[in-house]
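The material for today's practical consists of a large collection of protein records. A record pairs a protein's sequence with a compact description of its fold. Instead of coordinates, the fold is spelled out as a row of discrete tokens. We will come back to this pairing of sequence and fold again and again. Here is such a record, shown just as it appears in the course material.
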Amino acid sequence: MNMMNTNFTGQLLTAPVLDQLAPMVVSIGFFAVIIVMALLRHQRKMAELMHSQIDNQANSNIELRLASLESQVADLRTLLHREIIQQDSLTPPRMPSEALQNRLGQ
């Protein structure tokens, strides 16, 4: 049985058969490389597209949060100014101390 496989393989791999198979194998290999390159290029473009969409969503979320924080800071400033004005109107004006009046008088 083993001898039969050896003879069959020996008959298949003769020079005329190899001369015909070599261009076919090279052609198939060439087209396989082209197809793999196209698939890799497509995969890279899709990955870039997905990453850009994720980055855009993240930037959009950051911009929304930043706008919200800016609004809150503006509200806090307004509230702080109102509190300062209210406290100023509630406290009576202080009279200058005697030492201060003496220095101003000189």
Q: What stands out?
A: The mean pLDDT is 83. The chain is about 90% helix and 0% strand.
